[in-house]
Amino acid sequence: MNLSRPISRTSLPRPGGARAKLLDAARDIVRSKGFNATSVDELCAAAGVTKGAFFHHFASKEALGVAAADYWSATTSELFASAPYHAHPDPLDRLLAYIDFRSELLAGEIEEFTCLVGTMVQEVHNSSNAIRAACDASISGHAATLEADIEAAMAQNSVTVTTARSLAMHTQTVLQGAFIMAKAKDGPAIAHDSVAHLKRYFEMLFKRVPQEGNAR
Amino acid sequence: MNLSRPISRTSLPRPGGARAKLLDAARDIVRSKGFNATSVDELCAAAGVTKGAFFHHFASKEALGVAAADYWSATTSELFASAPYHAHPDPLDRLLAYIDFRSELLAGEIEEFTCLVGTMVQEVHNSSNAIRAACDASISGHAATLEADIEAAMAQNSVTVTTARSLAMHTQTVLQGAFIMAKAKDGPAIAHDSVAHLKRYFEMLFKRVPQEGNAR
DNA sequence: TGACACATACCAACCGGTTGGTATTGTTTG
DNA sequence: CAAACAATACCAACCGGTTGGTATGTGTCA
Lengths: 216, 216
Known about the structure:
2 copies of one chain form a homodimer.
Chain A: H1 18-33, H2 40-47, H3 51-57, H4 61-81, H5 91-105, H6 110-113, H7 116-124, H8 129-156, H9 164-185, H10 189-205
The structure holds a DNA duplex (30 and 30 nucleotides).
């Protein structure tokens, strides 16, 4: 087995190649139009490749959807792994700073801050179990990166009424809901509002008096 | 102007007519497959009418989407208006009972308890402003039915850190997010979990000690 | 009889996917 | 090293089938 140039499903594609360009195009276009409304031809045009190249790299449009979800997981992992909220020494501080970070990300155009996998899974959860599972893995995998901090904060404050995993997933629930509301209202204001409620929930749960800040 | 047989956009269509059957079919099929993946032919087949009947009642597929959102508003208003949570004498009790009621609704198949307008708005918010606005009106209109109780509960408990409208919208944010997570995980369990967090948020905000119950 | 509520038949455009083929790159071998 | 070979990357044209939408016919009822 030759390991010198592996292009596994979860590793990032070679930058500049047709595959990478298609995944970038999918990330942008699917977030703005949805998966079904995005045609393969449109993807190819945006990536500057032909339809033949598309089906050279992906067995089907569904396979592209799975790859796009995996690509999303990989790129967002990088973003959050290098984000500044990890610098806080206290786990609860890290958690609250994560929420602030998510709120800061809610800026610009809607298709720039919303979630690719949340958008896709709503459309295809019944028609493509492969994409559904890849989206679930992306969301749940990101939530899992919060669990250690939440667990530590729960231990510090003797919070036993729920679990770290449940709280981590709840953060993602609120964010996914915030994306939908932002789409309905055509702007991020309402999303900021709900994330502020989420932060207040954590502050009350962990009996942390809110720092003066961005709560509405 | 002939008022003897008005088919206004917001009133319920004549039961048994082609229009009503199409709107019922749209409610069911769009929730399970999404708006774009639902073809006009499929809608006609499910409703037992022909394509000619479809375009007799709706100028376009987009017009059906708007009508389906309005129809959703009308039918869900009825459901919630006659729901038992209004019976509690205390406004905070009514609010918490509303949340319990929403949790109870999260049962059965996913396409049976998820939200039509939340599903549609995610797909078409960029391609059809008419549908987007109808979906927004549906969600915001339902949230508005909670505002009076929230306002009264806030006054009773001297809660001033946020507004009744913001809290009402936040309940919908959490529910919409819960629907997405349920689709990603292919089951309502995680949605119940997040609604329990929402209830706990209200209990803490209004300093109400939780009744022994279904919180996880 | 005429207005309305549908049904039938049909269309141009577009869909995801396949085809046969070529250009490029890397590996083997003399 | 270079020629021979093999695999990959990519392309333009095309396929059968489906799409939303239209034009026109027909039965019904006031």
